[in-house]
Design a protein that fits this description.
By secondary structure, the chain is mainly α. The protein contains four helices and no strands. It has one domain. 76% of the residues lie in helices and 0% in strands. Helix 1 packs across helix 4 and helix 3 (72-93) runs antiparallel to helix 4.
Length: 124
């Protein structure tokens, strides 16, 4: 299976998991109004939609080819830290309270689901 097809599958799983978390992250605004469902879904999709291609394609390539890092677990730690903090900054910019905790919950959950799928379905 091609690297791009693997990414598409992983992206769909990530969106499914992380959107399920992020869509619930929106407390009422200070003026008491609540975001619409479509706005919450758009923010949820964008959060990991921004970082996932970078985590999958750019960070490993930089680690291998620019910095000479070959340890996959180190690369994953850097990639996941990037996703965690970037998504938290994005959520905070969108007015989500406790953005770092929501990002930790979403990214931790999707990482564990991804790791399970990687181990359970190695031919993917």
């Amino acid at each position: 299976m091609s690297w791009t097809l693997q990414w598409m599958i992983a992206f769909c799983f990530t969106q499914l998991v992380e959107m399920g978390v992020y869509v619930n992250a929106h407390a009422p605004r200070p003026d008491g109004t609540v975001r619409s469902s479509s706005e919450r879904l758009a923010i949820a999709f964008a959060a990991s939609g921004i970082t996932h291609p970078l985590v999958w394609f750019v960070i490993p390539d930089l680690a291998w080819n620019v910095y000479g890092i070959e340890n996959w677990w180190v690369i994953m730690a850097v990639a996941e830290a990037f996703a965690l903090f970037t998504e938290a900054l994005f959520l905070a910019a969108c007015g989500v309270r406790w953005a770092i905790l929501w990002s930790l919950l979403a990214n931790g959950t999707s990482y564990l689901v991804g790791l399970f799928c990687y181990e359970a379905f190695p031919d993917w």
